[in-house]
Amino acid sequence: MKPTLNRRDFLRNLVLLGISGLAVGTLLPKIMKKKESGLLWQINPDKCIQCGRCATDCVLEQSAVKAFHSFPICGYCRLCGGYFQPDAPRLDTGAENQLCPTGALKRKFIEEPYYEYSIDERLCIACGRCAKGCTDFGNGSLYLQVRQDLCLKCNECSIAKVCPSGAFVRVSSESPYLIKGRDEQKS
Ligand code: SF4
Ligand code: SF4
Ligand code: SF4
Q: How do the domains of the chain map onto residue ranges?
């Protein structure tokens, strides 16, 4: 039987800060913050092609973009396309089997054949590999979002300027995340 979805953990992922590992002392001096606007930068997960620029082009030393996981649409797969290298020698938690370069994506056994995957945001560098793997081979439950508590709200987001797919959009501060599976959560 499919395990009960961990809704509380999912919502908690949206609000936990988890920023202790972030180095914010090297910010560029000319950052222009959007102080009055109710608009925030966010990633449309349906447009993101996981190109890798979110990891390299944020003005922060460690990107304000993080991998998110939508538990309501996850298959809790034993063979997770977002977790394992395509040619993984074994389907276990050995570092050589993992797609994530920093070990930020965690795997926990629930019951045969289900596994739960969660993200340690302190380690996530927004490379998007997990999101690409999950989108290509799974349900697309792993995807990238701008963490609003980390984002400096630059007037001209340096990632938005180079995003090849137009995935960076302005959203209302009243609805700051473009969450996959939101409809399922309400049902
Ligand atoms: S694969 Fe990349 S985007 Fe996904 S959790 Fe690891 S560092 Fe973050
Ligand atoms: S607005 Fe600035 S801090 Fe936020 S994601 Fe874009 S470049 Fe990074
Ligand atoms: S730059 Fe755009 S397409 Fe590339 S990973 Fe970021 S949001 Fe996705």
A: 7-19+34-85+96-186
C-beta 127 within 6 A of ligand 3: no
CB within 8 A of 68, min separation 6: which ones? 13, 14, 119, 142, 143, 144, 145, 177, 179
**Residue pair 63/54 in contact by the 8 Å Cβ criterion:** yes
Tell me the mean pLDDT in the region 77-92. Answer: 94
- The rounded Å distance from CA 36 to ligand 1 centre is 32
What is the rounded CA–CA span in Å between residue 107 and residue 80?
A: 10
Question: From the CA of 8, how far away is ligand 3's center (Å)?
Answer: 28
Q: Quick one: which ligand is closest to 52's CA?
A: 3
CA–centroid distance, 166 to ligand 3, in Å, is 8
Q: Quote the radius of gyration of the chain (alpha carbons, Å).
A: 16
**What would the two tokens of residue 125 be?**
């560098």
CA distances from 91 to 21, 27, 100 (A): 29, 40, 14
pLDDT at 138: 85
Ligand 2 site: residues with CB under 6 angstroms? Answer: 41, 58-60, 64-65, 146, 151-154, 157-159
- The predicted model scores a pTM of 0.81
Per-residue pLDDT averaged across 93-110, rounded? 96
